[in-house]
């Protein structure tokens, strides 16, 4: 069952920027890129919408044992940076699903500009009601999307359902730290109405209750602190770069980046990479 409409509308509103593909392409053009034939490196500052960008995507992909013969479902695929990176690097086919219509449209445009339309496709939908038959995918992939979803039990049960037996789920997520509630705004939410973080023990429990066996569990909080501190410092000194995540999040991005550093340093959030098998 999908999430309540009001919640989904609030989440979409948080992420939606009108004419996003056009504004990303215009920013890339201003930065001197050939927008008719873009590279993954051109897009990397804006299209990997999670802590530590492409580096974290490749780490997770290697941990999950991605292969060219796999069909991957990316749940909460955003504007598609991770799906394009793993498709290009490993040759796998990726279907992305995301709640935010504007992100799905943008992801499709960008896939075309980097010549990956044969391997990646995007469709709008709710992670709690995946529009696929059971046992469709070899791997379920999800990075930094569960924070917007309160019903984690349905989320991971849906992933389990559409995964083939013997397949894995690869997760890279922000979890609740031991030190209490986060400082808002953060990149995934302006306030607590759209932010739902589990602690590490709760995530383990909900994955196991959905039927998964956890095979890899890595805390990557320390690397996240270093990455966000450097990013926030760069913005404070030199202002926003021509192409960056602020194109997705608007004027509040510098405050969000500052809050992420505080949330990480004060132990209000932690990051994990998890691989679990069906
Ligand atoms: C921080 S972005 C991460 C995007 C992408 N995974 C990445 O790492 O680049 C979170 C994404 O989750 C999506 N999302 C949130 N709730 C969702 C839901 N219930 N179903 C599908 N997508 C959802 C949002 O629309 C947004 O694109």
Description:
The chain has eleven helices and seven strands. It has 278 residues and is an alpha/beta fold. The protein is globular, with a radius of gyration of 17 Å. The two termini are 22 Å apart. The model has no long low-confidence stretch (mean pLDDT 96). The structure holds S-adenosylmethionine. S-adenosylmethionine is lined by residues 3, 11, 15, 48-50, 76-78, 81-82, 97-100, 103, 126-128, 143-145, 148-149, 187-188.
Q: Provide the β-strand percentage band.
A: 15-25%
The main pleated sheet reads as: 7 strands, mixed
Radius of gyration in whole Å, from Cα? 17 Å
Q: How far is the first residue's CA from the last residue's CA?
A: 22 Å
What is the overall pLDDT average? 96
Secondary-structure-derived class: alpha/beta
Question: How do the SSEs run, as a string of H and E?
Answer: HHHHEHEHEEHEHEHHHE
Bound ligands, named by name, code or SMILES: S-adenosylmethionine
Shape: globular
Low-confidence stretches: none
Strand order of the largest sheet: 3-2-1-4-5-7-6
Give the oligomeric state. Answer: single chain
Q: How many strands appear in the DSSP assignment?
A: 7
**Can you give the helix content as a percent range?**
40-55%
Compute the number of helices. 11
Mind sketching the topology for me?
Elements: H1 5-15, H2 20-30, H3 40-47, H4 53-64, E1 71-75, H5 81-90, E2 93-98, H6 101-113, E3 120-124, E4 137-143, H7 152-162, E5 163-176, H8 200-210, E6 213-219, H9 221-238, H10 246-249, H11 253-265, E7 269-277
Parallel strand pairs: 1-2, 1-4, 2-3, 4-5
Antiparallel strand pairs: 5-7, 6-7
The chain binds S-adenosylmethionine (SAM).
Residues 3, 11, 15, 48-50, 76-78, 81-82, 97-100, 103, 126-128, 143-145, 148-149, 187-188 line the site of S-adenosylmethionine (SAM).
């Amino acid at each position: 069952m999908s999430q309540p409409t009001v919640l989904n509308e609030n989440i979409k509103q948080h992420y939606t920027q009108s004419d996003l593909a056009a504004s990303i392409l215009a920013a890339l053009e201003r930065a001197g890129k050939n927008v008719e034939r873009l590279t993954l490196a051109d897009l990397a500052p804006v299209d990997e919408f999670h802590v530590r960008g492409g580096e974290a995507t490749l780490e997770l992909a290697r941990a999950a044992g991605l292969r060219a013969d796999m069909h991957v479902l990316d749940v909460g695929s955003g504007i598609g940076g991770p799906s394009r990176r793993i498709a290009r690097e490993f040759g796998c086919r990726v279907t992305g699903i995301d709640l935010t219509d504007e992100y799905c449209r943008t992801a499709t445009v960008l896939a075309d500009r980097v010549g990956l339309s044969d391997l990646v496709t995007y469709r709008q939908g709710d992670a709690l009601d995946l529009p696929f038959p059971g046992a469709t995918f070899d791997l379920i992939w999800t990075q930094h999307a569960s924070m917007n979803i309160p019903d984690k039990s349905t989320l991971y049960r849906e992933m389990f359902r559409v995964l083939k037996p013997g397949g894995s789920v690869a997760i890279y997520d922000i979890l609740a730290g031991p030190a209490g509630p986060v400082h808002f705004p953060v990149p995934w939410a302006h306030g607590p109405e759209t932010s739902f973080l589990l602690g590490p023990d709760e995530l383990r429990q909900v994955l196991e209750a959905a039927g998964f066996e956890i095979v890899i569990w890595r805390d990557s909080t320390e690397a996240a602190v270093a990455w966000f501190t450097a990013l926030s410092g760069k913005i404070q000194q030199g202002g926003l770069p021509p192409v960056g995540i602020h194109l997705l999040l608007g004027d509040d991005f510098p405050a969000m980046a500052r809050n992420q550093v505080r949330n990480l340093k004060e132990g209000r959030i932690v990051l994990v990479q998890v691989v679990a098998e069906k």
